[in-house]
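Question (not urgent): is this output format expected?
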Amino acid sequence: MLILRRLLHTSGPGGVLSKSNLAKLRKRTGFSFVNCKKALEKYEQDVDKAEAWLQEQAQKEGWTKATKLKDRATSEGLIGLAFANHNNFSAAMVEVNCETDFVARNESFQNFVNQVAMTTLTHYRKDCEQLSEPVKISISGNDLASLKADSGQSLQDLTALTIGQVKENMTLRRALCMFVPADHYLGHYVHSPLNTIKDKDSFCQMGKYGSLVAFQQKGKVDKHKFQPGEFGRRLCQHIIGMNPLNIGEYTRPPPSEVENQDVEVPKPDEEASKGFSDSEDNIPAPPEEELPTEMLKQEYLLNPSICVGEHLLEHKVTILDFARFEIGENIDGGS
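Got this back:
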């Protein structure tokens, strides 16, 4: 306690160090006691100038660190999926990579993933406010790096700043935005979520897998059984678990074929209500035989007695587009 009092009240170039200014600067920046003390003394208790200087020094350190680490492999990281709180018509999904799972669980890294996802959503949403059909925008890592955050800094600069904090190489790998008109729905799901960051306008979920699906429902259905948010979430679970490559087409078999099938078919909602665990270990492994790559022809993950096409027909739903991200997956053929 004696040492702390001496540090707080030692006179230097900037005069007596203000305890309240020190606390304010530390809260604003998150930097160490020693660095904040040094900055306040340098700028004679001017908190704004001290903060600007600390950020400048951190940026320099980050770029130096980023240059040293740039050749290290980045196979871990997080998928960040951002939504606006006031509607379910727009979303952004990003992949940010780091070297180890340890850093992926670091608060600084997760805050950065949230910032990348929200910056992406904000930037592209302003051009997609009046829509007549769903829009999907794929964004490369280079284009992502050039976007400006609320602070005015580019995501590339913020990447270097975060590298300086976490001491590992990082990569902005890719992003995707999806927007739908007001008479459509946008389902979303993050498997095995590590964190969710919320504020008054938005939220961002983070995990190793993420998916989005745009769909439309036409016709009369039981509103108690059809809940768009839950319906979309389950479709996204299927997309993550079964990894379809395209939507495909589904034609209902003739009644004669259905009558000849001596199979007891459980009600879809009874099976679907079970869902599957959020544990990463519980993602179903594909069977040894080759699976259909068209989503509508695949067995529905939450009720394997029917295919996805049958599930959609029952609820009068049409899938219009979808996307799936998995950390570290091969995207050489396109994202």
